[in-house]
Amino acid sequence: MEREVTSSKWSLRNFEFFEDDDSRRRKILNHAFSPSALKAQEPLLQKYTGLLIQEARARKSLYLRERYNFTTFDITASVIFVWNCTGRNDFMSYIVGATTKNTMVMLDMEATTGTLVIAGSETTSTVLLSTTRHLMLQPEKKEKLRKEIRETFSDESEVTLKALKNLPHLTAVFQEHFRCTPPVPCSIPPTVPDGGDTIAGDVDPGGTFVGIPQIAAYRYPDHFAHADHFILERWLSSTSFPLFEPTTYNPYFDKETLKDYNFKIV
Predict the structure, then answer these.
(1) Region 30-41: what's the mean pLDDT?
(2) Residue 1 within a domain
């Protein structure tokens, strides 16, 4: 693959947020994304997913692009901006309640919540829609997934984060989706430090953006056989794919529980 580099200064506030003192801010958000914190939000996700199912059953047809967007935005807004008198902790409670040493200024909070809203609503609905499209185009794979889900759960209330970890076909569906159609096809590139550095044998000046677009890496035939085809079986074997690392491209996409909550239950 040919390598392309550009040089510029960060101008967007939320990208500045990721570059500047990232470890301190991660410590704050780690509490919000812990398994126990996300488990506490499970009833909300089940509630809005249930509303989506009710809507689907009540109509002969459903505009999924719109409905997925409504559902994921409702979920995201509910876990980030809770109505205070309910006494339920939301993500902001961890940010506002952080210790003085790890506190965020208002500029950081605005950048953080903006990023979380986009990642939790628009990006998630894109994943759900394109995954549905892949399955509709390949009915045999949809049927395998349907059979796995129906044989595992007898009622919607049984669909929990813990239970979903035991569905290999469901996991494979999303793994292959992220490979074929990553919702953020570009990367959030790190910047070469002042003074420059040598990367892959090339000397890059300071301030250069260096990144690998996911869509290019995951469709590269030397890395994936039949790279342009949606093939679940590649994830159901013992074969490993070191190149496939969605967490590398998104600083807050490294929690297995976050992926489960955002995609699998819906």
Answers:
(1) 74
(2) no
